[in-house]
């Protein structure tokens, strides 16, 4: 038996305690209840939508915001991505807009900011110099997409801590004055294999415009030499934005390098081993035509354009058959060639070559030259039966302009102004190598390598 009770306005179906089957009547009752529920559902569907609970509304809004953020990130991409660690600082930052133009990019690391630039279409932004190792960076970018919607994206990441480092040193001293042939010389504590990356990190500025090029002498020495001599009375600044640059695989620079120095008055000398005379040009005018004696046969003073390295008064000179204190000595090769006072050979000066390889001058002329000389003054030797040896002093002026360009990893010329330097194609350079002695060495020295 079954019994249907009403309690609290609801109907309940209660099976009797007897173990009989409900039979057809039971199935009819269940069907009736199910049918009634169906009528209720149909009635609800034909009316107004059911109210959404607060929890469901919040969940939907959160999902929508998440989808919008994902869409924004897809349209405005920042690399390295948010949360990345051990980022290679030399790879830099790249912000890309897939739709519309980038309006602004701000990169900070503590109180420091990072500079960069856009491409012409304002769809890509890159930082200018390498990032610093072992630092946290935050990038905030804003763009306006093609539909006019403002999009923002942010990324925070941490650069790696190098396992090995390289250091760079510059030859020139702060606020020191040098001659018009002085190249910038940078030396590195370990071999550099990423030479192009290093060149790109270097900036030169000059109070007077010049054209030059970088030249690698091996893997640990880098020169910047001008096409022609520096203009006299020029201030030169060097900025090596090296911190974070990967010198070789896994080896990074961890500091920048800067220096400022001056180019003084022009002092150029040309020694002829054939005529036995030295032509001296000071401040653009011929200042002297002095008799000299150069290296005797077998000890010849060799061809090439060198620069003065140092001077001393007196200098102890020791060699095969001599040990002398020599006055007013100006050195131009590592192997020991000087322009110096030689009172013992005055009778031969202007007539014949009797020295051990140095350029002998009278005491009066040697003192005059010594008082003007500074490191970096060009010294050219001509007329010798032999050419100079590469690396015996600062010998980058042995190179022609074309040879100089071949020593650059980028193969480009560098145009220098007061606001900095720019890499340019050599074919776009309008300046030409000078052949006048006051501006640069003549082609007869190019073979001296």
Overview of the structural elements:
The protein is mainly beta. The chain folds into two domains: 68-158, Immunoglobulin-like, CATH 2.60.40; 162-449, Beta Barrel (L,D-transpeptidase catalytic domain-like). The protein contains five helices and 34 strands. The protein has helices at residues 23-45, 54-75, 195-200, 363-372, 401-406, and strands at 2-7, 10-15, 76-79, 94-97, 101-109, 112-113, 116-118, 124-127, 136-144, 150-158, 164-166, 168-170, 177-178, 184-188, 202-206, 210-216, 221-226, 234-240, 246-248, 251-253, 257-263, 267-272, 277-282, 285-291, 304-307, 310-312, 315-319, 322-326, 329-331, 338-341, 359-361, 378-382, 413-417, 420-424. A six-stranded antiparallel β-sheet has the order 12-14-17-16-33-34. The protein has a five-stranded mixed β-sheet with strand order 24-23-22-32-25, with no helix packed on it. A hairpin with a 2-residue loop joins strand 1 (2-7) and strand 2 (10-15).
Q: Secondary-structure blueprint of this entry?
A:
Blueprint (H helix, E strand, L loop, with lengths): L1 E6 L2 E6 L7 H23 L8 H22 E4 L14 E4 L3 E9 L2 E2 L2 E3 L5 E4 L8 E9 L5 E9 L5 E3 L1 E3 L6 E2 L5 E5 L6 H6 L1 E5 L3 E7 L4 E6 L7 E7 L5 E3 L2 E3 L3 E7 L3 E6 L4 E6 L2 E7 L12 E4 L2 E3 L2 E5 L2 E5 L2 E3 L6 E4 L17 E3 L1 H10 L5 E5 L18 H6 L6 E5 L2 E5 L25
Parallel strand pairs: 11-20, 13-21, 22-32, 30-31
Antiparallel strand pairs: 1-2, 3-4, 4-8, 5-6, 5-9, 7-8, 9-10, 12-14, 14-17, 15-18, 16-17, 16-33, 18-21, 19-20, 22-23, 23-24, 25-32, 26-29, 27-28, 29-30, 33-34
């Amino acid at each position: 038996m079954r019994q249907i009770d009403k309690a609290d306005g609801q109907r309940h179906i209660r099976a009797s305690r007897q173990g009989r089957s409900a039979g057809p009547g039971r199935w009819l009752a269940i069907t009736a209840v199910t049918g009634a529920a169906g009528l209720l559902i149909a009635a609800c569907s034909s009316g107004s939508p059911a109210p959404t609970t607060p929890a469901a509304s919040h969940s939907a809004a959160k999902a929508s915001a998440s989808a919008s953020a994902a869409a924004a990130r897809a349209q405005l991409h920042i690399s390295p991505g948010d949360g990345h660690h051990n980022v290679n600082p030399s790879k830099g930052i790249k912000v890309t807009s897939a739709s519309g133009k980038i309006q602004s990019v701000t990169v900070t690391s503590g109180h420091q900011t990072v500079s960069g630039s856009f491409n012409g279409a304002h769809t890509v932004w890159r930082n200018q110099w390498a990032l610093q190792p072992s630092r946290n960076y935050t990038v905030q970018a804003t763009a306006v997409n093609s539909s006019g919607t403002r999009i923002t994206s942010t990324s925070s990441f941490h650069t790696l801590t190098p396992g090995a480092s390289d250091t760079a040193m510059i030859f020139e001293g702060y606020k020191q004055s040098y001659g018009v042939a002085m190249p910038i010389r940078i030396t590195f504590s370990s071999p550099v294999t990423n030479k192009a990356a290093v060149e790109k990190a270097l900036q030169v500025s000059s109070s007077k415009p010049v054209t030059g090029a970088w030249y690698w002498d091996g893997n640990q020495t880098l020169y910047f030499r001008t096409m022609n001599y520096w203009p006299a009375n020029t201030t030169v600044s060097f900025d090596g934005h090296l911190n974070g640059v990967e010198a070789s695989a896994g080896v990074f620079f961890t500091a920048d390098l800067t220096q400022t120095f001056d180019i003084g008055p022009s002092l150029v000398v040309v020694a002829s081993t054939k005529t036995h005379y030295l032509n001296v040009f000071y401040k653009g005018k011929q200042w002297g035509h002095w008799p000299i004696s150069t290296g005797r046969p077998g000890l010849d003073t060799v061809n090439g354009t060198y620069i003065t390295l140092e001077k001393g008064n007196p200098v102890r000179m020791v060699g095969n058959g001599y040990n002398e204190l020599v006055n007013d000595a100006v050195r131009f090769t590592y192997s020991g060639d000087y322009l110096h006072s030689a009172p013992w050979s005055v009778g031969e000066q202007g007539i014949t070559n009797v020295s051990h390889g140095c350029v002998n001058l009278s005491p009066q002329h040697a003192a005059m030259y010594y008082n003007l000389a500074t490191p970096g003054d060009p010294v050219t030797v001509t007329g010798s039966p032999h050419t100079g040896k590469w690396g015996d002093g600062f010998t980058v002026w042995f190179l022609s302009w074309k040879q100089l360009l071949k020593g650059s990893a980028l193969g480009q010329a560098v145009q220098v102004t007061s606001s900095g330097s720019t890499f340019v194609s050599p074919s776009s350079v309008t300046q030409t190598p000078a052949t006048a002695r006051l501006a640069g060495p003549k082609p007869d020295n190019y073979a001296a390598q």
